[in-house]
Write a structure and sequence with these properties.
One of its GO terms (biological process) is nicotinamide nucleotide metabolic process. By secondary structure, the protein is of the alpha/beta class. The protein contains 21 helices and 19 strands. A 12-stranded mixed sheet has the order 8-1-10-19-18-17-16-15-14-11-12-13, sandwiched between helices. About 55% of the residues are buried.
């Protein structure tokens, strides 16, 4: 699903109006019609609706909804947050089409609050207060209206985006409507997908209002990885597939006390369909790895008896890399200076596609220029916000304040694929492509989940998926696997190994298309 900023959406509206001759009035009519249909389908039992409309085109959509529902026998009250003469353009045309008796103007502070009984009797409240035109903190009567909508007991339907949510970032500009359902137009607004806005939308539907598909496809924006988008990337297995075609992954991982990370990365690669997996570990830990991995082969590399990778490991790892399809470096490596040196040497010398995670990222953060003087054309980094902050030399707040911008600029500067983890993981390619992952749940906020993701992405690269697709699909499958576990066990107490073991079911679910369109 395509996701765009409100600004891009306004350009799309303009292009459709100016170049294709489809008038703004028609787009508004279509927008209102789609909303009226969704309202009737979801809340048609009690035909009493209160519509709160701002003075822009979002309010104009509200007027169309009012006319259409009224025509279907609904009892309609429309509150406008200004005097009628302040409303202009297409919105004014649609305001004039309404029976005056249903309209109450509430231009001054306190006006709307006098109509609490109308809100109390409503079967549904329509939020047509603010849409993509919001640019700053919500002011005056608009803020009051948002409070009133939120305090009412009826379900809330938001037109285009819950009022108060910034359409580009999902940030709440002062205060915002909490909706039960949102119908957004033509393409998802980023604000409906990124948190906290995403949580305020309730059920999100994208409505076709007559903007041609090609115009939407050509617009700058992000791909929202929902079930349908991920399904397009997944290749079913041919009947004659053999393990030699499914990639041999080399995973460089583990240190004393952290063999679990190495085992989860390796076992998750197996569960994500890797043909063969070899996990290189410090020699002292090999007996443990022999027990923790069954299908994956463990490879002891010299560690001077310490349980940590040291410089001597380099030769063994590069020898092991021969004949492999991809190398993952990082899970459970530790902060040992010699290990960090080794990571940087691997990153600069290896020619195979590389996936770097965890302590591997911290090693790079100390000398990010190693990314620029490397041999491999494909490097995938999988940082959480703390690791991203270290890599980019900024604070975690900076990262969280602009997750897309930070991921985009780092991946283009260092020519790497980036998976910036968190609620709505961002995937960035060196060419500027951005995807936002739609799967996963808060139950996955526990140790080891990143090791599982590393295993999945590594396995997909090994199977020949183009790197950006491997990142997008791997992230989605990882989250979907977590969602399947949460469906069975709930969101508290899910372990990374639960997610690892559920991976085949995630692939099966995606292939079956049973959850088409879900996010
Ligand atoms: N042809 C199209 O384009 C189509 C667009 N469509 C619809 O139009 C919507 C976009 O409409 P829009 O651009 O008119 O902006 P909108 O969200 O209604 O808000 C603007 C109003 O809000 C006010 N306001 C702003 N900031 C504020 C603040 N902080 N606090 C308080 N007030 C604030 C601002 O007031 P002003 O600052 O001008 O005094 C202005 O009056 C879009 O989401 C979709 O629903 C569909 O019909 C399909 C066709
Ligand atoms: K709205």
């Amino acid at each position: 699903m395509k996701a765009v900023t409100g600004e891009t959406m306004q350009q799309l509206d303009r292009r459709t109006i100016d170049e294709l001759g489809i008038s703004g009035l028609i787009l508004m009519e279509n927008a209102g019609r789609c909303c009226a249909g969704a309202i009737t389908a979801a809340y048609g039992g009690n035909k009493k609706v209160v519509i709160v409309a701002g003075k822009g085109n979002n309010g104009g959509d509200g007027f169309v909804i009012a006319r259409l529902l009224s025509g279907q026998g609904w009892q309609v009250r429309v509150f406008i947050l200004c005097s009628p003469e302040e409303i202009t353009g297409d919105a004014a045309v649609n305001l004039q089409r309404l029976d005056e008796a249903m309209i109450t103007a509430c231009p001054r502070p306190g006006d709307l609050a006098k109509h609490g009984s109308a809100f109390a009797g409503a079967g549904v409240i329509v939020d047509a207060i603010l849409g993509t035109g919001l640019k700053s903190e919500v002011r005056g009567v608009y803020a009051e209206a948002i409070d009133l909508v939120n305090s009412a007991s009826a379900p809330v339907f938001a037109v285009d985006i819950p009022s108060g949510v910034d359409s580009a970032s999902g940030k709440i500009l002062g205060k915002a409507v909490r909706a039960d359902m949102t119908v957004t137009f033509a393409a998802a607004k980023l604000g409906c997908i990124l948190y906290p806005g995403a949580e305020l939308c309730g059920t999100l539907q994208v409505a076709d209002i007559g903007i041609p598909e090609q115009v939407i496809a050509d617009a700058p924006g992000c791909e929202f990885m929902d079930h349908a988008a991920a399904r397009k990337l997944l290749r079913p297995r041919g009947r004659q597939t053999h393990k030699g075609q499914c990639g041999h992954c080399l995973i460089v991982a583990g240190s004393s006390g952290k063999t679990g990370a190495a085992a989860m990365a390796a076992n998750s690669a197996v569960r994500a369909g890797a043909g063969l997996v070899t996990v290189a570990v410090p020699a002292l830990l090999n007996p443990t790895m022999e027990i923790k991995t069954t299908e994956a082969m463990s490879l002891p590399v010299p560690d001077g008896g310490t349980g940590f990778f040291c410089g001597d490991a380099f030769k063994g790892i590069m020898t092991a890399a021969a004949g492999k399809d991809v190398i993952a470096v990082g899970p459970g490596l530790s902060f040992e200076p010699e290990t960090a040196d080794l990571v940087r040497k691997i990153v600069s010398q290896a020619a195979l596609p590389l996936v770097v995670d965890a302590d591997g990222l911290n090693a790079i953060a100390a000398q990010p220029e190693v990314l620029q003087a490397r041999k491999s054309s494909v490097v995938i980094l999988t940082p959480h916000p703390g690791e991203m902050a270290r890599l980019a030399g900024i604070t975690v707040a900076d990262v969280e304040g602009d997750r897309i911008g930070v991921a985009k600029s780092f991946s283009s500067r260092y020519k790497v694929f980036l998976i910036l983890k968190g609620a709505r993981t961002i995937i960035a390619s060196p060419d500027g492509e951005i995807a936002i992952n739609g799967s996963g749940n808060p139950g996955m906020a526990s140790g080891g989940m990143g090791d599982v993701l590393t295993g999945v992405v590594t396995a997909l690269v090994g199977q020949g998926y183009p790197p950006f697709f491997a990142c997008c699909l791997g992230t989605f499958i990882h989250g979907l696997s977590g969602d399947l576990v949460a469906t069975e066990k709930g969101e508290i107490g899910i372990s990374a190994v639960d997610v690892q073991e559920s991976l085949p079911y995630a692939f099966k679910t995606l292939l079956s298309n049973a959850m088409n369109g879900s996010s």
